[in-house]
Give the backbone structure.
Amino acid sequence: MAGTRRTREVIFAGDLDHAPILDDIIDLADEQKVTIRELSRSKFESMTRTDGAQGVLAMAQPLRPTPLEDLLDPERDGTLPFLLLLDGITDPGNLGAILRTAECAGVTGVVLPRHRAAHITPTVTKTAAGAIEHLRIAVVGGLPAAMKTLAQSGIWTVGLDAGGDRSLFDLPVADEPVALALGAEGPGLSRLVRERCDTVASIPMAGVLDSLNVSNAAAVAVYEITRRRLEASGE
């Protein structure tokens, strides 16, 4: 329970073995006056919408998207914007993995297109392992228009694509606001998004294969930018 939105109810499967984490969940729910229910395994499974449910289900208020404008300014501690633009990621597992990496790496906001892309579903939520409770996520009508807004706010956009004209490891992104654009599985960056990028970079490949899964590519790219930002700040 991250405290970012109200949890209405916590439901347990009736056949769970005792574990300390269950006691912690019950204590937190009781502290916040959240209703607790126990159901038979069959009824519990009928309520879940993910594979391999682990026996605990929380019913919470829906996530509220963050306005794009709220992602454009530095954080209260002075951290410059580090945004992730996801151009038509359709696989929920990939989206969840990307969001988990983004939160761990210090990304300050994520921008998702409203159409032809995965959004926050139970599968995404489970794969993200809590990241959606801490990341600010904006949903926009189209990424190209959002990128124009970013440019007007002084945010430099880097597209990541196998056909990029420079190496990811040569980007001067350490001391300025930056947005990283990632393309969909297979097609990569859409034409308009690619055209709106200030530069398009690729991850150098030293093996026989010439590409990475989008979530793995996201992890490499996000942490390369994070490494440079930390070096620039002396951390």
User: Anything to note?
Assistant: The helical segments are 20-31, 41-47, 92-105, 122-128, 143-152, 191-196, 214-233. Strands lie at 7-13, 35-39, 56-60, 82-87, 109-113, 137-140, 156-160, 166-167, 178-183, 199-202. The chain is about 30% helix and 20% strand.
